[in-house]
Structures are given as structure tokens and as C-alpha cells.
Amino acid sequence: MNAPATLAEVRPDPGFSDLVSLPLIRTLVGFDTTSRDSNLALIEWVKRYLEGFGFGCTLTFDDDRRKANLFATLAARDGNATDGGIVLSGHTDVVPVDGQPWDSNPFEVAVRGDRLYGRGVTDMKSFSAAGLATVPEFVRRGVRKPLHFALSYDEEVGCIGVRRLIADVVARGVRPTGCIVGEPTGMQLVVAHKGKRGWRCRVRGFEAHSSLTPLGVNAVEIACQIVAYIAQRAREFREAGRRDEAYDVPYTTTHVGTIRGGTALNIVPRDCAFDFEIRHLPFDDPEAFIADVRAFAAQFLPRMHAVDPSTFIEFDHLSTLPGFDTCDGSAIAALGHACNEHGSVGKVSFGTEASLFHGADIPTVICGPGHIAQAHQPNEWVAIEQVARCEAFMRRLADHLAE
Fold first, then answer.
1. Gap between the Cα atoms of 253 and 212, Å rounded
2. Residue 263 burial class via C-beta count within 10 angstroms: exposed 0-12, middle 13-18, buried 19 and up
3. CA dihedral defined by 330, 332, 359, 324, rounded to 10 degrees?
4. Rounded to whole angstroms, how far apart are CA atoms 236 and 11?
5. What is the pTM of this model?
6. Which of 85, 140, 161, 370 could, after both became Cys, cross-link 145 (CB 3.0–4.6 A)?
């Protein structure tokens, strides 16, 4: 179905006004910002848009200058641009659409029924668009304290860009009093998320003809036994581990995401590698988990070395994202409640840049339209009602900042 030609053709559920952010959602989704590609076209467009409303903008680049973060500030009425204020944070990159069976162009917003479809409409361009659409109102009314937009690159591959953005913010003496990260929470205020660690296991075996398997060391078989142990640990966390029922998944989880190995059926495989992670609750130690995995793997080494001493099992650290927990009674949580119409708070299992802002002494909460189950999927979608709620959140934020 073709997207509507006018806003009047999009009607949210009764009680919600037409989406003023729809043109901006269309614009942001129209930039293919898959993590492997550049995001500069989107960043430059948003920079020009915000500079047109008087925002001061700073870019921080990756090493190749193919990607950039944008930190943009609307100064307070008294000219203050550094002390206090609120950050609206979102990432610009999206996950790939390769091999996914989409019913429409992923990089064009399609409106079907009460939903918007397109890559990034949930994760997380609708939040950024709702904030940008409210900019004329922020400017018209003025703000008591600065308002900041933080748009980062490579969140989907490890919150890489935002680390440079935050370091630059701190180095320039900008001291926001709070941050709102717009990841999809169903517009529920989220005050905590799990920590995450990721590793790659590399198994080096010894090649032989498959008719002479005792003369070789099968790297795939050994890797699969380690994978099975990780799955066993996942069951232990689920069935016997400590729990926090406030989380959407109330126990620590482990997961193997990719595995690669072997060259031909009639060759005992020399190499195999797989990537795995733990998403842990605060009371579960990821270092203890990886130590257990290493100890399990070590039992295979004597037999491997008996065949060939050059065989090995090694673990490479891939990523770390701390967990975080903001007290529900904090000032930023109180602001989130004031801007939201949901009274409850939640905790989520997915990671965000919230923990990095929080670690830089910028108290943070998470609240955004859509649900994480709708993200990263073919035909990713967000309910129009959710975007309308986000727009209402932004209007209430404008009320607060203008007081």
C-alpha cells in the first residue's frame, strides 16, 4: 500500500490528534542508516533542521569520518547552554534488512490501518522524530534550562558512537541534569536494564580426512559441546537462578548468536568460532559465568594437544554494556512521570546507552514508543497510538521546560 499523501489521511485512535511527527518519521526512515553504512546524510539533515531553529550543534566523528554523532543544544532564555537541562537521546543506526521478507520498501514509511511500517519506526526513529517535531514549540515558548538532542551512531553494534559523544559532552563542561533515552518501552517509564557481555570462542583443531577421524581434532564438535554447556547454564539461570520480577525477562539469560566452521564434509574441521553473550541481572556476575565456560572448555585441551600441540581454545571479549538502575524517586524519574500518562515503571532486558549516560553522572530513564518485540523484524511497525502518546509526552516536557 502506498503511504498517505497528507496527514489528514492518518487518523489515530479516538482521543488522539493527528500525528505532527509523521513527515519527520518519513524523513528519518528514508535515510538508510544500517550500521555498516554511513549515517552522515541523516546527521547533516537534522543538523540543518535544528540550526534553523537556533540550536548550537557539535559533531563527533568515528575514526574514518564516515559516521558522526550530533549533540545539539537549545540555550535557555538567559543564554545558558551548559548548566542543567534535559537530553533527548536516540541512535540513528538500524539493523540490516538483508534476507527479511518485507511487504513494502523498508526505507519508506507505509501506513496500514493503525500502524506505521518501516525499518526504524520502532527502534527508534519515531521517538527522535517526535522530539524534533516539537522543536518549534520548545523554541516558541523558550526553556528555563537547556534542551539537548543527542543522536549517535553504531548503537546496534555495541553503543559505540555514544561513548565518544558523552566524552565530548563531559570535556566541554556540559552538565545536563537528566537524560531520556527513547528506546521502545510502550511509553512506559523504564528505570533499569540488564548488563550485557559478549565474547567470541575460537576453537583450533587439526585437519584430517574424514575416514581417519581419530587422527584429527574436530573443532566443530568441540565448539558444539561448549555451546551445549552455555545452553545448560541458560536453563540453570531460568530454573534455579535468582529473579527480579520487575524485568520483562526476570532472570539472567545466555545466548549463542552465530557459529562458523568447517570447509567440507569429508574434512575433519580445523576451525570453528561462535559468538555468545550473557544479559545479567545485577546480582549475577558475568566474570564468574565466563570463568565457568573457560573451565568447561579447558577439559578438552589435553586430548587436543595429544594430537597436535598447536590446537587451542581461546575466548575474545567483544563488548561490555553495563546495567543500570535509576531510583524511581529520582528527579529524572519524577520528570518522566510528569510527562507521561502511565503511572507504573518497568525494567527491561535489552541494553541501551542509558547506562553510559548514567555512568557519566547524567541521571537517565528510558521511555519511547513501540515495543522491542516489534524491532529488528521484517515489517517492523509501531502503532500510531504509541507515536501519539510520545508526542503528548513531548508537549508535557515543553510545559515543564517552559515553566
1. 39
2. exposed
3. 70
4. 48
5. 0.84
6. 85
Kindly report, residue by residue over 104-140, the tens digit of the pLDDT. Answer: 999 999 999 999 999 999 999 999 999 999 999 999 9
Residue 389's Cα: distance from chain center in Å? 21
What CA–CA distance (Å, rounded) separates 266 from 159?
A: 42
C-alpha cell at 400: 515543564
Whole-angstrom distance, CA of residue 364 vs CA of residue 366: 7
Contacts of 277 (CB under 8 A, 6+ apart): 196, 197, 198, 199, 254, 255, 257
Name the grid cell of 241. Answer: 537462578
pLDDT digits (tens, 9 = 90+) for 76-98: 999 999 999 999 999 999 999 99
In the chain, what is the straight-line distance between the N-terminal and C-terminal CA atoms, in Å? 44
Instruction: Give me the mean pLDDT over the 138-144 stretch.
Output: 95
- The residue count of the chain comes to 403
Cβ neighbors of 136 (< 8 A, separation 6 or more) are 53
